[in-house]
Specification:
Elements: H1 5-47, H2 52-82, H3 85-94
Helix pairs in contact: 1-2
């Protein structure tokens, strides 16, 4: 018994939609995070200008940590697209599993 190609196409299509939503949410979250980080750093600099170097260093450290999440999510989404575990599960179930 072989896996039906239309079922595989549905799985791949649904996975592509899910990956698109994942990447859109990561991009939106990253943009909001950058905006919040920079606005709070500018507020701190406006309140205490002598703290500018320390605030800038902290801003870039936190921005780097925040920016790593979309890249991790990008790697996971590429795994879903190119090594789709759902298609493999369907194939093993259809193969007599």
């Amino acid at each position: 018994m072989n896996a039906d190609p239309s079922v595989i196409a549905e799985i791949v299509g649904a996975t592509a939609i899910g990956v698109g939503l994942m990447l859109a949410a990561a991009g939106l979250g990253s943009a909001i995070g950058w905006g919040l980080i920079t606005s709070k750093a500018l507020e701190g600099i406006a309140r205490q200008p002598e703290m500018r170097p320390q605030l800038m260093v902290n801003m870039f450290i936190f921005a780097g940590l925040m920016e790593s999440f979309p890249f991790i999510l990008f790697g996971v989404s590429m795994w879903f697209l190119f090594a789709n575990p759902f298609v493999g599960t369907l194939a093993s179930m259809a193969g007599g599993g």
